[in-house]
Amino acid sequence: MLGLMTRKFFPLLSLAVLTMGCGKEITEAQTSAGKNTENQDLPSVYVLSLKEGDGFRKTIPVPQNATFIVPSTLYVRNGNAVGKKVEITYNMDPTNSDEYEFRCSYYSDLAQDQLSLLNCRDIDNTSFGDVGENKFSMYYGKSMRIEVTQGWSSTLVIEAFHSVDWL
Description:
This protein has 1 helix and 10 strands; from the N terminus they run αββββββββββ. By secondary structure, it is mostly beta strands.
């Protein structure tokens, strides 16, 4: 008799417990990514880009102190580089674009997809000569600016890859 009751009653009891649960509400996990960048590593290649919709210049705040190598080439992903001149300004005061540490000029007279480094000059217009693989500093609180100073086109897309060591 006990065996018969156990076989019939136990499956019904299990079903009742599963139906009622333990009383805790089940919620779905959130799938949106958080914006906390406090403990995230910054990439060792920092891409400064000027795209359609940015206009002929774009200013970007420096996210953290770093040392970097000035790129010898800028790449044109859309449009034609021939006859274009681009300047990148480093350690610019975000409230006064006339205050900066140095700027580098790039030009293309033949290549359609890239601009080559012409020179880098400080605020006093003194040339740095060949910057090669020299490391320069960029400072948190300052800005970098990429600007087409000759031959701007609204469809031009330019990328400058900086090899960076974040401090």
